[in-house]
Amino acid sequence: MNFDFLQGRSQSFSNDIFMAAVLILLVDTERGPAIVFEERAHHMKTQPGEISFPGGAIEQGETPSEAAVREACEELLIEPDQIELLGPLDYYVTPFEIILSPWVARLTYGDLSRNPDEVARVFTVPLIDFVNTKPRVHYTKHHVTPDDNFPIQDYPFRSLTSQTYFYDINGETIWGMTAKVIHHFVQLIRQQEKE
Question: What SS3 state is found at 89?
Fold first, then answer.
């Protein structure tokens, strides 16, 4: 057997992993920078009515930042030249085999709108409100349940317990992966302010 094909091969993620990117889009307000949120349209197949960042699947040949910008433009009816990328946050891997790439950006000019096919409403929350608010933390347990004809019986699969963050700000509840990304962003801001 010849394994030369492995030399110089770039490592990637398996095709059965879903990769997505989101944009933590900042807009200037009287109270400083504010984060743009969407309420997903209620007819969507996945996560209908959920509060989230603009974002979605990374398409073949796209970088995570390109996907985040493209999705934000589609959902908020803005143009790429209105977006200034500031940089990435850390990757997240969900218990459901989704890898999430969050990017922070600034809206440089213009107003936000929404694509009603994807977005029920758009709103902003000042970043300082997240900096000054400690999130509630609850825990979820994820169990493996093999199907009835799984070839190995009585295997002691482990379960996974994960933290779920909740921010209750200005009458909005922002939770789940969106809140986890915000929590990380706030930690980075606090760390930078100490230096």
Answer: coil
Q: Is the pLDDT reported for residue 14 higher than 80? A: no
Query: Which domains, and CATH codes, for the chain?
Result: 17-194 (3.90.79.10)
DSSP 97-165: SEEEEEEEEEE-SS-----TTTEEEEEEEEHHHHHT-PPEEEEEEE-----TT-SS-S--PPPEEEEEE
For 34-69, write each residue's pLDDT tens digit: 999 999 988 888 888 899 999 999 998 899 999 999
DSSP three-state, residue 5 = helix
Confidence (pLDDT) at 44: 82
Mean pLDDT of 72-90: 97
Q: Could you tell me the pLDDT band of residue 160, with boundaries at 50, 70 and 90?
A: confident
Instruction: List the structure tokens of 114.
Output: 């929404």
In this structure, the number of other CB atoms found within 10 A of the CB of residue 111 comes to 10
Cβ count near 185 (within 10 Å): 19
Q: From CA 92, how far away is CA 105, in angstroms rounded?
A: 18
Give the amino acid at 91: Y
| 80 vs 99: CA distance, rounded Å | 24
Q: Which candidate, 59, 47, 65, places its Cα nearest to that of 19?
A: 59
Distance separating alpha carbons of residues 165 and 50, to the nearest angstrom: 14
Residue 95 has pLDDT above 90, yes or no: no
